[in-house]
Amino acid sequence: MPLTARVRTRDGWPVAHAVVTLTDAAGRQVLRVEADAEGSVHDPAVLAPGAYTVIVTAVGHAPAAAGALVTDEAAGVQAGTVTLARQGGAELPPPGPWTVDPAHSTVAAVARHLGFSSVRGRFTDYSARFEVAADDVTASRVEAEIRAASIDTGNAARDTHLRSADFLDAGRHPSITYRSTGLTAAGPDRWTVHGDLTLRGIRRPVDLDLTHLGTGPDPWGGTRAAFRATAELRREDFAMHYNQVVQAGIAAVGTTLRVELDVQAVRGTSLPAG
What we know:
2 domains; CarboxyPept-like_regulatory; 1 helix; Lipid/polyisoprenoid-binding YceI-like domain-containing protein; elongated; Immunoglobulin-like; Lipid/polyisoprenoid-bd_YceI; Lipocalin
């Protein structure tokens, strides 16, 4: 068993086609092997006893290196599991397409009311997809569409008013859309998503503060990832000027909205039943 290794991300996902290089004590390259689609390496070459350095590299990931000592030709180098971090130290789910599952996600907006309390609403009809880029994770893309008329605050009269031209103007502008323009790492599991939000037919740049909460298997045989994201919107940026002034000059509705997203996404382009 001369050289074996398993290359994984911090979340335990295989790093397909990572390259494992073995150098001797003089720094000369002795062996160079590409991992398979499951991130596994096995090369039968016989290695002479001595000290070696195992170097593992992969596009979009920071390299890793470790020392190895071969005392017996039959034993070789068993590198075990080598963990690679995303370039820059930030993690996202495995590359490829992902589809947001509305049944296990929440798209909410919070507004200040009377200057001292909050009113919370949520949208019940929306779809979203994103693509995690393999080589340069900052090139990942997000697209979402929300049906404006699906706003639900738990009060029918208020919801009707929110759908009117005073606020969402859902009759003339039935869709709210968001399309990303870039991604910036803000920490090991945090990102800033840069994008354009179109609301009431008006497009404005809006950044989302995104946290990756983890990735793992689901009960239906798929893979899921969870995220939390927030953003602040100014109503006037989208021509929502309606307000009432109550006593002491306090506005009935705050000038800003806080968007709160709790999202589950399924790996792939379709959603499972259940």
